[in-house]
Every structure is written in structure tokens, then in C-alpha cells.
Specification:
The complex is a heterodimer of chains A (509) and B (371). Chain A has 2 domains: 235 residues, Rossmann fold (3-Layer(aba) Sandwich); 165 residues, P-loop containing nucleotide triphosphate hydrolases (Rossmann fold). Helix content of chain A is 32%, strand content 27%. The longest helix of chain A has 17 residues. Chain A starts with a strand and ends in a 10-residue tail after the last helix. A two-stranded antiparallel sheet of chain B has the order 1-2. Helices cover 71% and strands 1% of the residues of chain B. Chain B has 371 residues and is mostly helical. In chain B, a hairpin with a 2-residue loop joins strand 1 and strand 2. Chain B has a domain of 226 residues. Chain B has 14 helices and 2 strands, in the order H-H-H-H-H-H-E-E-H-H-H-H-H-H-H-H. Classes of the chains: A alpha/beta (509), B mainly alpha (371). At the A-B interface, helix 10, helix 11 and strand 20 of A face helix 8 and helix 9 of B.
């Protein structure tokens, strides 16, 4: 490739106390090129991008923008140099219009008042030029997630960015929205914008990029093109060993109904009903997956089943016991394991040791307590055993859980929940933000629970995860289960359409 | 104790010690400014050193000084433990003052109201009455928080006023000592008084140390303590784990009030032998500083209490020797509190980097805005 190099990193090294986040990283981005940056969590992708974006500064090495060595000290400077970043979590004000959000921090003024006419005109021009289809007068709170992302992209383009960094942009999108995003990226590319696309999803990386750089433990371990790579080869580069991408499982042997959700309605925090008359059965020995774009009532449904949120109407029966609106402890004691969606917020006490977290919901039972006195030796013993069995990577079980990586935090929760004899496993986003190696382990453990005879309910925003794990797939849209599809008959396309609210002929119930 | 534990303790004590050091330094500048400056010995620096010398001598220099310091530290230990225990449950108990007042009132009431009982029954009864008063006064905001979400900072402040008014009513009215013009109760019976351990030192100081051990054991070695700490560290995880968050909030506030009430009761039974209007004012508020300085640990609270007790006790000798106003002690205490609360200032001055272990520390700012 002999096009102009717009961005270059030379031997960039960045260390944090005890961790080398980037080591001698070399990177070149050409004009009009889509460069994918692939790596597990903690591989150093985000650190590298934060250096580019001026949030950190490298310890050694050089950064060149259009051939000129620069020291970017703040995000506003990186914007001045034409680098725009779209974060995973959007930085938009919901009650402002698109135009107001875009001019925020770069206001055009006429005398003392804002010159919104000029801004709106410019937004319309950009929207047409790049085929973004954004209405400058719409309020951000009324836009879909995919549209909000396009607002972020226009925001960068409005500030004349010609180098665009997209940090895990598809994590919050439906497959169809992701396709739309890819179309936008192709248009940007055709107009000469360079894009750095950060992801850990192999399929997407192969679909959209011109070049793929793989990071592992802060170092570039390989560079390839989509033509010369397969999902398997990329995954191996990322992890450093061969990995099993498909879940290996025998057909399900469903037994008696363990979880019976009957016609339940649930409100969200604002009092809006977000789960509408959902009924669902999960049998012993099967995995039921709930697919759906985030925010379609899955979270509230699970919270209602596990006692964290009141059920407005309907019934929840676990193992023949009516546990509608029971307290969480009763539901746990009825034989339920719950891997919560937000592990930092709900599943763990980050300041506690691994050992204390391992007994977070069993601390009051023998052998961990005698009467009201805790048995620290037994708690420690239990933790040492589980750390070994569930392969939690830690120097010892007394380390605060907050110091562990995402994958290891999740393993602590899985170890705690699945080391008890349970009848029902509820796992929300079991592998969100977890590295490929740990995903494989977590999936195997979940399948093993099924084969042992547990009923398993898995909720995930990752379609691939649902498709490879679930024996039956329930699709949720706007608080309703719109279809239940046998796992082996589901296709990505059908599920994607159902998740977007389309009705399919001949699929589902 | 192994090397790792020692390192951990050292790290935990580093910032409080630097805060104290910095406060004394700034306090020294203030003393210097108030002193003879350029016409004194060594440009007035000797004046500052004399002042601090007197302070130290008055606090720890003689047996009499040490006894005085221990007596002054005793209510601080109880009330500091009270604030620390609530803090461990994520609650900011500003109400130790009011709980202490209620404890002192009830203890005095039982102390002078009940007659003809042997010490072995009357003294425990007096102390129990103080605990009960504080317990109820602490449980009210706990209950309001658990039931209605009312922030404990607001409700405890309001209850402080109510306690002060109740105290004013009783001490000027039905419980007033008829033989005296001051608003105070009659003296409590001999059988309700804490006996002396040494001349000038009552047994309350032993009770305070025992209370510190009890609080430590309760918080770190029992399932009750585990629940309270879990609610404080992450209430949504506590709920997820099946812990009854509301019950623990009420319990923690009640126990916190109980300790504060005991502070009041021990003052009545060991030092004043009566409850006097406005006599124990300030202990409840100082105890917030003590809990923060002691990082909400039992050992830290004991050490901080000895420091604050020492400062208060030494101030008299300092004032006698150098004419430095004993009010400077309040300034130094306030400076310590500022530096402990605004930890970043100390980190910045002495270039102390944050360690991952610090992530779990409860800080002042975390006590606010969390519902």
C-alpha cells in the first residue's frame, strides 16, 4: 500500500504500576483505510487508543500525525489534529437535539446567540454526503442506539475529523444495525476518511477491515489481511493457543419443568411496564436462551425472577414452589444460581477478597459459620479449592476481587454460583467483556450444568453466544417474547429480524 | 503478625499520620503568626516549639497527664466507634451528638432516680439505660432511611436538635436539681458511679477498650458484621446475595446509637456524676473526625481518640506556659479533619501514589449522595 500514512505509532510503550499495557507497538494507518485492532480485554487496545486520543501519554516511543511527530496532551488537541473517537458509551445529552449535541463544545455564535441555522445546514450536508440519515432537530432521547451512534460519528466529522476511532462500535447494535454501520464505514472510507475499528468480534473484523492488527499482552503479535485469515487463525493469534469457537454439546434431554414463568408483567425503575405478559418454561437438562437487543425487558425479567424486582402480575414457579415476589435468599435456597448481568454492581463486592466473595450468599451456612461466628479457615479453604477448580488466575484467594481482570471476576461468580448443588441456573450476559479463553471455559461449564440435569436460562446480547449455547431460543422485543425457536433451526438473519420487531412467517409460535 | 500485615497497617496509617503532621505544621505557622515573630528567640520559632512542648507535656508528659488524657479519650472512643460502625454500613451518622445526649440523660435519670440498690445492679442498670437511649435515638433515622429513603444525614441532624430540646426541658423542668440554679440533674447515687481504677481514672476507660475489641470482633468475625459490611460496601450486591438491606441499616444505626449513648452514660457515671445542660457538647461531632482519622477501624479509632484526648488535655498546660489560646487545638483538629477528608491534598504534597488496595477504603465523599 503506497497511500499517504496519516497516523503512525513508533515503538510506543506505556506501563502502569505492575503492568505493561503497551510494549514497542508499531502501527501505521493509511488514508482511506479501515484498520481493525483485535485483541482480548486487557490486551492494550484501549490504552493505545487513549494515547492517540490524548488521555494518556506514552512512556517512550513516538506518535506521528501526517508525518509530524506530535505529543497529544488532551482530547481537544487530538480533535484539532483531525482525530475523532466514538466511545462505547455515547457522550450525548439525551434532552438536547442532535444539532445541539453536535455543536456542544464547538458552538458557532452570531453575536451573543447560537447560530443553529448554519449548524443544522452543515449537519444535513454531512448526513447526505455520508448517507447517515440523521435529522438535526430530533431529540437524542428519541433516537435508537444505532442512530445515536451515527450522531457521534457526525459529531466527529463536524469537527473535521478524518481519522475516526470506533471503540467496540457493534456491542450495542442488532445485526441489521451493525450492517448499516458497516455501510457508513464503507462510505467514509470511499471519501478518504481513515478508520480504526476496535473489536473482539472476529466475524466483523473479517467483514469490514482492510488490514487486521492483533494485540496480545500489550504487544503486536501479528498483522494480516481479511483475505489471509480465518476466524480460527485470528482467535489463535489473539489467545496464543488454539481455541474451540463452537460449543461442543450433545442434543438436550429435557426433563421436568423447573422454571415456570406464567404471564408476568414487570415495571422498570421509572414505573414503565417493560415486561408484558411473558410466559416461559425451562426444563431440567435444557438451555433456553433469551435473545434480544439490550433494553427490551430482559434485564427486568431476570430481576423479577430472581427476587430483585417486584412482579406486578403473574406467577414465577421454581421447582414446584411458588416464588413470585419471594426474597432473593428464598429463591437462592430453592436451588437457583444467578450469574447477574452487572457483575461489578450486583455480583461482587470489589473491595472484598476472593474468599469472601466466594461465600457472598452462603456465609451464614455451615461450614462457613458456626452460629453467628464466621469460620475464616473454612472460608479460605473453600476459596482455595474453587480458585483451582475454576482456574481463577490470581496470586492468592485473599486478593481483593477488584484487582482481577473481567474474565477472572466472572469466573469467581461462576465458581460461587455453580459450586452449590443447583436446580436452576440463570446466567445474564455470562461472557460480556470476557476474553476468548475464559469464554470457552464458561460455556463448557454451563453445558456441563445442563448435562448434570440443571435447567439453564441464558440471556445474552451476543447472538453467536445464544445460537451456540441454547437448545431453544426465545426472542424478546418490546417486553414480549415474540418467538420461541428451536436452537438448531435458528438462523442469524431470522433472529436479527425478530429482534428488530419483524414478524416472520413460519417461524416461532 | 507477618510482614505482609505490617506493610498493610503501615500503608493504612501513612496518610492519617501525614495528615496529622501537616496539620501540626500549619498549626505551628498560625501559632508563629500569633507570637512575637521577629523579636522573639530564633525569630519566634522557639515560641512555637515551647507551645508544642507544653502541649506534649500536658498530654503525655506525666502520670497525671496520661490519666487526664485517658479520661478525655474515653467518650471519644465510644462515640468514634459509633460513627465508624455506621460508616461500615455506608451510613454517615451525624447524630452521635444527639444519641450521646439521650444516653447521658437516661443514665442520669436512672442514676439519681433509683435509690437503695447495690452497685452491682445499679451501675449496670445506669449504663444500660444510656445504651437504650442512644439505641432508640439511632434506630429512628435508621428506620426512616430503610422505610422511606430519608437521608440519615438530614434526619440525624434534626434529631440532634430534638435531643437538645428534650435535654433543655428535662434539666430545667422535672429533672432539675432543686438545690442549684444551674440546669442540671441532681447527683447520681454512689451506687451508680463507675469506681476508680487509679486516683482520677475511672473504670470507663477499660470499658472503652473492651468496646473497641467487641466492635472489631462483631464487624470482622461474625455473620452480622459480614452483613453490615456488605451492605456498606455494595448494597446492590448485598441485596443480590439475599441480605436484608433494610434490617441491617436499622441495626447498624441502632448499634451506632447504642455506642454513642454509652459515651454519654460513661461521662455521667464516671466523670460528672450528673447530666448538665450543654456539658458534653461537641463530643459527638469530634467523633466524626476521629472515625475518619482512624479509617473506621477499631484500632484506628482508639489511637485517634488518644490523640484528640491528648490535644484537649495538653491544651491547658500549653496555655499556662505560653499564653497560646487553647482554641488553637480546635484549629489543629479542624486541619486534621480537612487533610484526612481531602486526602488528595496530602497525596499531592507528599507524592503518595494510590495503590489498588485503596479502592475499597470508605472515604468521606462516598458517604454522601448514596441513597
Amino acid at each position: 500500500m503506497d497511500r499517504e500514512v496519516v497516523l503512525e505509532a513508533r515503538n510506543v510503550t506505556k506501563t502502569f504500576p505492575g503492568v505493561v499495557a503497551n510494549k514497542d507497538v508499531n502501527l501505521k494507518l493509511h488514508r482511506g483505510e479501515v484498520l481493525a485492532l483485535l485483541g482480548e480485554n486487557g490486551a492494550g487496545k484501549t490504552t493505545l487508543m487513549n494515547i492517540l486520543y490524548g488521555l494518556y501519554h506514552q512512556d517512550s516511543g513516538e506518535m506521528l500525525v501526517r508525518g509530524e511527530a506530535v505529543r497529544i496532551s488532551s482530547p481537544s488537541e487530538s480533535i484539532r489534529r483531525g482525530i475523532g473517537m466514538v466511545h462505547q458509551h455515547f457522550m450525548l445529552v439525551p434532552v438536547f437535539t442532535v444539532a445541539e449535541n453536535i455543536m456542544l463544545g464547538a458552538e458557532t455564535v452570531k453575536g451573543l446567540s447560537l447560530d443553529s441555522a448554519t449548524v443544522r445546514k452543515r449537519i444535513t450536508e454531512l448526513s447526505e454526503e455520508y448517507n447517515l440519515n440523521v435529522d438535526p432537530d430530533a431529540y437524542v432521547k428519541d433516537l435508537s442506539v444505532g442512530q445515536q451512534q451515527r450522531v457521534e460519528i457526525i459529531k466527529a466529522l463536524y469537527r473535521k475529523a478524518d481519522i475516526l476511532i470506533l471503540d467496540e462500535p457493534t456491542a450495542v447494535l442488532t445485526p441489521q444495525e451493525a450492517d448499516q454501520l458497516f455501510a457508513v464505514i464503507r462510505t467514509l472510507k470511499a471519501q478518504g476518511t481513515s478508520v480504526i475499528f476496535i473489536s473482539h468480534k472476529l466475524k466483523e473484523v473479517l467483514a469490514i477491515s482492510d488490514r487486521i492488527m492483533v494485540l496480545r499482552r500489550g504487544q503486536v503479535v501479528g498483522e494480516t489481511s481479511p483475505e489471509g485469515a480465518t476466524e480460527r487463525s485470528l482467535a489463535e493469534m489473539m489467545v496464543g493457543r488454539s481455541v474451540l469457537l463452537e460449543v461442543d454439546k450433545a442434543p438436550a434431554q429435557p426433563g421436568a419443568v423447573v422454571l415456570n414463568i406464567h404471564d408476568i408483567c414487570v415495571n422498570d425503575d421509572r414505573g414503565q411496564q417493560v415486561v408484558n405478559n411473558v410466559s416461559l418454561e425451562v426444563r431440567a437438562g435444557e438451555i433456553v436462551g433469551i435473545a434480544g437487543v439490550q433494553g427490551n425487558g430482559q434485564t427486568e425479567l431476570i430481576e423479577a425472577i430472581t427476587g430483585l424486582r417486584p412482579t406486578k402480575s403473574g406467577k414465577v414457579v421454581i421447582g414446584g414452589q411458588d416464588l413470585t415476589n419471594a426474597v432473593p435468599r428464598k429463591i437462592t435456597e430453592a436451588g437457583t444460581a444467578h450469574v447477574p448481568e452487572d457483575r461489578q454492581e450486583d455480583g461482587l463486592v470489589l473491595s472484598y477478597s476472593i474468599a469472601d466473595n466466594m461465600v457472598l450468599n452462603t456465609y451464614y451456612l455451615a461450614p462457613f459459620a458456626h452460629g453467628v461466628v464466621l469460620d475464616e479457615a473454612k472460608i479460605r479453604e473453600n476459596a482455595d479449592e474453587l480458585v483451582k477448580k475454576f482456574d481463577v488466575r490470581t496470586p492468592s484467594a485473599v486478593v481483593p476481587v477488584g484487582n482481577l481482570s473481567g474474565g477472572n471476576k466472572q469466573k469467581v461468580i461462576i465458581a460461587r454460583e455453580l459450586s452449590r448443588p443447583v436446580k436452576l441456573v440463570i446466567a445474564s450476559q455470562p461472557t460480556r467483556g470476557v476474553d476468548v479463553g475464559s469464554i470457552e471455559f464458561i460455556h463448557k461449564t454451563i453445558v456441563a450444568e445442563r448435562d448434570r440435569g440443571a435447567a439453564v436460562l441464558v440471556i445474552s446480547a451476543e447472538l453467536d453466544e445464544i445460537m451456540s449455547l441454547a437448545d431453544r431460543i426465545a426472542v424478546m422485543y418490546h417486553g414480549e417474547v415474540v418467538a420461541i425457536v428451536p436452537g438448531d433451526q435458528a438462523t442469524r438473519e431470522d433472529l436479527g429480524l425478530l429482534m428488530a420487531g419483524a414478524k416472520l412467517e413460519g417461524v416461532g409460535t | 503478625m507477618n510482614a505482609q500485615t505490617v506493610r498493610k497497617l503501615g500503608r493504612a496509617a501513612l496518610l492519617p499520620l501525614l495528615s496529622i503532621f501537616t496539620a501540626l505544621l500549619v498549626g505551628g505557622v498560625i501559632i508563629w503568626l500569633s507570637g512575637p515573630k521577629f523579636n522573639g528567640d530564633w525569630f519566634g520559632i522557639k515560641f512555637v516549639l515551647d507551645g508544642y512542648g507544653g502541649l506534649f507535656l500536658g498530654a503525655f508528659g506525666t502520670q497525671k497527664a496520661i490519666i487526664g488524657t485517658l479520661v478525655r479519650a474515653t467518650p471519644y472512643i465510644f462515640a468514634g466507634l459509633a460513627v465508624a460502625l455506621a460508616f461500615r454500613c455506608g451510613l454517615f451518622n451525624i447524630g452521635a451528638e444527639g444519641q450521646l445526649t439521650m444516653g447521658a440523660l437516661l443514665a442520669a435519670g436512672v442514676g439519681f432516680g433509683v435509690k437503695g440498690m447495690p452497685l452491682i445492679i445499679h451501675l449496670p442498670l445506669t449504663l444500660l439505660a444510656g445504651m437504650l437511649g442512644g439505641f432508640v435515638w439511632g434506630m429512628i433515622p435508621g428506620f426512616l432511611k430503610a422505610r422511606t429513603g430519608a437521608h440519615e444525614v438530614i434526619t440525624t441532624i434534626m434529631l440532634n436538635y430534638i435531643a437538645a430540646q428534650i435535654s433543655g426541658y428535662l434539666l430545667n423542668g422535672p429533672w432539675k436539681d432543686p438545690t442549684n440554679v444551674t440546669a442540671q440533674t441532681p447527683k447520681i447515687a454512689e451506687s451508680a458511679r463507675l469506681p476508680a481504677l487509679l486516683p482520677g481514672l475511672h473504670w470507663g476507660v477499660v470499658l472503652a477498650f473492651l468496646a473497641a475489641i467487641a466492635v472489631w470482633y462483631f464487624l470482622w468475625k461474625t455473620t452480622w458484621g459480614f452483613e453490615i459490611r456488605t451492605v456498606g460496601a455494595n448494597s446492590s450486591a448485598a441485596k443480590y446475595a439475599g441480605i436484608n438491606v433494610s434490617r441491617n441499616i436499622v441495626l447498624a444505626m441502632g448499634l451506632s446509637g447504642l455506642l454513642a449513648g454509652l459515651a454519654g452514660a460513661v461521662q455521667v457515671a464516671g466523670v460528672n456524676y450528673r447530666s448538665t445542660l450543654g456539658f458534653n457538647v461537641g463530643y459527638g461531632f469530634d467523633s466524626i473526625a476521629i472515625a475518619l482519622l482512624g479509617r473506621n477501624t477499631a484500632l484506628g479509632v482508639v489511637l485517634s481518640s488518644l490523640l484528640f484526648g491528648g490535644l484537649r488535655n495538653g491544651a491547658t498546660i500549653m496555655q499556662f506556659r505560653t499564653q497560646i489560646s487553647s482554641d488553637i487545638i480546635s484549629v489543629i483538629q479542624a486541619l486534621i479533619l480537612i487533610f484526612v477528608a481531602a486526602e488528595q491534598i496530602i497525596r499531592w504534597i507528599y507524592r503518595v501514589p494510590a495503590t489498588p488496595d485503596d479502592a475499597g477504603q470508605a472515604t468521606l465523599s462516598k458517604g454522601w449522595g448514596k441513597s
